Amino acid sequence: MVLIAGTLEGSGTQTHVLELIKELGLETYPQFNIGKKVHHMGGPGARVRTYRTSIPALSPTVLMDLTQFLWKIDRLCATVCVKDPSKTPNAVELDSMTLHSYTEQHGWTAELREEIGLCSRIVFGMEPSQMSFLFFLMYAAAAGGLLPLLESTAGCAQEFKIKGGTQQLSECLAERVGWKNVRLGSAVTAIWQDAEWARVTTATATFLCRAVIVTCPPHLAAKIHYEPALPSQREFLTQNMPVGHMIKFIITYQTAFWREKGFSGEIVAGSSTDCPFCVTFDATSAGGNAALVGFIAGQQASQWSSKEDGERRKAVLSSLVKYLGPEAASFIHYEEKDWAKEDYSGGCPVNVMTPGLLTYYHPSLRKPCGRIHWAGTETATQWCGYMSGAVQAGQRAALEVLAELCPMILTQEEQEAVRLGQTAEGPAQKTPSSKRKYLSSNKAVVIAALTIGAALLLAQRENALIKVKMYLTNIFSTTKCNIFLL
């Protein structure tokens, strides 16, 4: 699952995990995002910028490029069928591309391509060339759009945190089912099944049951031995869903000095030989214990994971000093975790699909195999990859099992949900930040603004005039001469 510094997904759309939090009697508090954000792209020698809005302070050329790219992504997300991506218009074509190849075709500037690479590392722990473009669209559509995945404003991915830490969700649930019924350090090695029973084997015990719900990530589920063997489509799917690579670090301080200096603690940095991390956030606790959290992700994680712990720590602190000031060097404690080295994780934050998988093998992701049912956040249709998606997937799998073993206790609505292979809720709603907003205005204002950007772009790109003309045509044919604002 994707989790930034123990943050909790947005209140507007991620109802599954919020309902669970309410049921367990836990409390939330907002992710701190007040103040200047740091933006550094283009290499060590490039200018370090600060901004306070959702979109960084970019040049007019890059801003226009980013605007048209986000507009195209938003329109494509609106066409995606999250429950069955193969029904998406032009699904085969979209699934044959990577996010990288689409960006190369539709992005005009090198700066935009760098920004998309950064977004890919932050959200997936992967480079844009490693995943299907249709998977990227499906993932964003399940969250209500691309921007909700990246922001900490109302209704977005990083809006809330849980007082006392998100581990309380697992602890409270374990208490409800009884700790004696929870086996830790007991990895499942084999699952055998016949027409009546399923037998689950671990290194130390064997359990006989009527149904099994497998919730671990697909790449770990593929390591279990199944008897009889799973259908070939399911096997092929799980063996071709790579997981991202992230190294998470948390640094505690005596005071939140960045707040005192007018910074939010949020830093985004492009791939660099000097700076290991791609993003940091304020991780100060509800009680006021000052901390910053950050992630080394994607290609940078692969490069820095082979270095000594001390070398990584030194590079991280040096970069924080560069962006936030000398106070960053005076820390209390530095802790890091490379999720790729964890036996029961093997990577972070989520499994992705490579080109071709969605259109040919996706139905096997949630389809039960005899007495084996599949859950986990990768199988969710709302906020896939996040905690809320994990809760939704668990509820769906539980309903599937109950429908088989004791259908009489299910409501008619729940039985219908099982029949449709989904939860009783409808599709995710667009969050305010992901909706297209329109303001009536004079067409001349739009033309003037875009002409300035076009003139700058033409000075750099020989055939950009054609693209600008197509872009203006699309804008005015779909917005009826209104201004499109992000």
Outline the secondary-structure elements.
Layout: E1 7-8, H1 15-24, E2 28-30, E3 36-40, E4 49-51, H2 60-77, H3 91-96, H4 99-106, H5 110-124, H6 133-141, H7 147-150, E5 160-162, H8 167-177, E6 188-193, E7 198-202, E8 206-209, E9 212-214, H9 218-221, E10 225-227, H10 232-238, E11 246-252, H11 257-260, E12 263-269, E13 279-282, E14 291-297, H12 299-304, H13 309-324, E15 333-338, H14 357-361, E16 372-374, H15 387-405, H16 412-420, E17 437-439, H17 443-458, H18 464-479, E18 483-485
Parallel strand pairs: 3-12, 6-10, 9-16
Antiparallel strand pairs: 1-5, 2-5, 3-4, 6-7, 7-8, 11-14, 11-15, 12-13, 13-14, 17-18
- Give the termini separation: 27 Å
Rg of Cα set:
23 Å
Mean pLDDT: 85
Strand order of the largest sheet: 4-3-12-13-14-11-15
Overall number of strands: 18
What would the principal axes of the Cα set say about the shape?
Answer: globular
The level of helicity is 25-40%
Structural class: alpha+beta
Report the oligomer: single chain
Q: How many strands, what sense, and barrel or not for the largest sheet?
A: 7 strands, mixed
Proportion of beta-strand residues: 15-25%
As residue ranges, the low-confidence spans are 1-11, 422-462, 464-469, 471-486
Number of helices: 18
Would you write up a description of this structure?
- This protein has 486 residues and is α+β, with helices and mostly antiparallel strands.
- The chain is 38% helix and 16% strand.
- It contains 18 helices and 18 strands.
- The strands form five sheets. A seven-stranded mixed sheet has the order 4-3-12-13-14-11-15. It has a four-stranded mixed sheet with strand order 8-7-6-10, with no helix packed on it. The protein has a three-stranded antiparallel sheet with strand order 1-5-2, with no helix packed on it.
- Strand 6 (188-193) and strand 7 (198-202) form a beta hairpin.
- Helix 15 (387-405) packs across helix 16.
- The longest helix has 19 residues, at 387-405.
- Residues 1-11, 422-462, 464-469 and 471-486 have low confidence and may be disordered.
